[in-house]
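wait is this the right file?? whatever heres the structure
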């Protein structure tokens, strides 16, 4: 079974509960959303890459020699191949993280479902063809609830202003109870200066809710580049 792959690389996880952990990243190309601030447009707005068989991808993962694997995109839950790759990694004793927007559910093996529901700030108003479609699809409460029930999880929200936290509150009210420490707030930005400035402004707000402030370590280490 083939799937388009944008990139496979080995680095340290830069975001979330496993930040700093050496990991093999498999970025599948293709997405059902079009975030205005997308930091991987080469896997969404303009999907690029080569088609690879699932077993070829697993071979590349094995070659990396790392214990943690991150299946990301784009939107990896779009593809049936994600089921095969995740199961094969499980059979090899790998820890599997799947990065998803939480709009699609699949029968995957996943040790950490990293769910990033898209807030209103993600709507691509510059693209009328996509704005309505994106806005209608970006929050799927039944799918989110199923993923939270079926997998160990973290919820990562990309925020552009303090008012976004009110929208997060509204989403969480519709979901099963979630440990506050599993709610991660991540400022939007593609350079360190902007990210840390925004993060400082968010500190009192996440403290009020006992949520977690989530940096993007890969930006600090490598800048906004592929393969990191």
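ok assuming it is, sequence goes like this
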């Amino acid at each position: 079974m083939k799937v388009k792959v944008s990139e496979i690389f080995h680095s340290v996880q830069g975001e979330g509960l496993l930040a700093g952990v050496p990991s093999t990243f498999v970025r599948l190309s293709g997405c059902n959303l079009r975030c205005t601030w997308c930091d991987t447009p080469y896997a969404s707005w303009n999907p690029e890459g080569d088609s690879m068989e699932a077993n070829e991808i697993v071979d590349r993962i094995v070659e990396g020699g790392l214990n943690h694997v991150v299946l990301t995109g784009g939107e990896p839950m779009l593809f049936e191949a994600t089921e095969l790759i995740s199961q094969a990694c499980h059979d090899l004793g790998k820890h599997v993280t799947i990065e998803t927007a939480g709009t699609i559910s699949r029968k995957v093996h996943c040790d950490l479902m990293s769910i990033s529901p898209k807030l209103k700030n993600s709507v691509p108003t510059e693209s009328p063809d996509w704005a309505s479609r994106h806005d209608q699809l970006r929050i799927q409460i039944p799918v989110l609830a199923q993923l939270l029930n079926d997998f160990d999880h973290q919820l990562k929200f990309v925020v552009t202003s303090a008012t976004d936290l009110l929208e997060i509150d509204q989403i969480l009210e519709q979901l099963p109870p979630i440990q506050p420490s599993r709610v991660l707030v991540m400022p939007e930005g593609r350079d360190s200066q902007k990210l840390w400035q925004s993060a400082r402004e968010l500190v009192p707000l996440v403290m009020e809710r006992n949520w977690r402030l989530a940096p993007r370590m890969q930006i600090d280490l490598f800048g906004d580049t592929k393969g990191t």
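Residues 192-209 form the longest helix (18 residues). so i think its the right one actually
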